[in-house]
Amino acid sequence: MxxxxxxxxxxxxAEAGYVAEAFASNWLSxxxxxxxxxxxxxSARMGVPSVALASGTAAIHLGLRLLGVGPGDEVVCxxxxxxxxxxxxLWLGARVTFLDSERQSWNLDPARLEDFLKxxxxxxNLPKVLEVVHLYGQSADMDPILALCERxxxxxxxxAAEAVGTTYKGRPCGTMSPVAAxxxxxxxxxxxxGGGMLAAKDPAWVAKARFWSQQARDPGVAYxxxxxxxxxxxxxxxxxxxxxxxxxxxxxxxxxxxxxFAYRDAFADLDGISLxxxxxxxxxxxxxxxxxxxxxxxxxxxxxxxxxxxxxNIESRPVWKPMHLQxxxxxVERHGGEVAEDVFRRGICLPSSxxxxxxxxxxxxxxxxxxVLRARAGRAPAEASAP
Length: 387
What we know:
Layout: H1 15-25, H2 33-46, E1 50-53, H3 56-66, E2 74-78, H4 87-91, E3 95-99, H5 110-122, E4 129-133, H6 142-152, E5 155-159, E6 167-168, E7 171-172, E8 179-183, E9 196-200, H7 203-213, H8 236-247, H9 249-266, E10 273-275, E11 282-283, E12 289-293, H10 295-298, H11 302-311, E13 317-318, E14 334-335, H12 338-346, E15 347-350, H13 358-385
Parallel strand pairs: 2-3, 2-4, 3-14, 4-5, 5-8
Antiparallel strand pairs: 1-9, 6-7, 6-11, 8-9, 10-12, 12-15, 13-15
Helix pairs in contact: 1-8, 2-8, 5-6, 11-13
């Protein structure tokens, strides 16, 4: 049978026309009408200025630099995230510290953050930046987080790579802090195949990021540089894809949510498997449909489900492996980690593409249910004979 992937690009129809315009006009590099239009449309949607970049990771890198992160500074972030949230801080010479998540959204725990900042303030050793990650399309609980950071004078960057279209109390994720990063990687809810966006409340910061993203070339005829820059600008061709994708964002969000809730309903009678919590404070886009497995109740482990799905040519994955468990970060300071470890041990990401058919999803559901029934049938005799 055909392979079902976790999350694949889904074109809306207008993308090809915008890309054709780029070819017809020969605007194929890192300037052009598609770039201008994509940035304008994204900025209008989010309500803050933005600049299109080659990746969400590049946006985090430039965002941290805008916040003044440099050698010896400390950047705090949740341990339950993808490594791209963390690497840019190291590129700037900073050190990282990891905090645990809370169970209501699997995002950064405000109570853990409060304890951490209070203890650090007592010894006059506060971090430079807190990086908040909105995980799997769900917002972190931003009001207490922002209040704490304001109280202690800690800058905030939102990593909204997985949260294009997500809201918190009616506000788009990525618009509540001074600077934010978004991703349009091929597996995201909308895509430019590879790309990202930096958004900031201060237009001067966006202009500075745009300058850095184009090798920081100073104005004038000569190729002169007084600052360090990067080759981080999105191409006009890929921006054409982004224009078309942004036009169907609301439809993509609705479909991702429908896929997630279909899984929830299909497994409702099975004790031991549940959809990722839907926190009450915002719109969860369910970028990926993530479920939590209780092996004792379900009768089968998360890893056994992954193997059963793979045997039927269906891709599934564990959730992100916490950063404090990564070999590259052994010995890095962390506070807590039990929640992140539990979610990692039991969480499974199921196929979530918006162009997945109902029949495709029914196939996934059937494989999961069959694996559960086989496992329960296999243990029934032993249970029946137990004293």
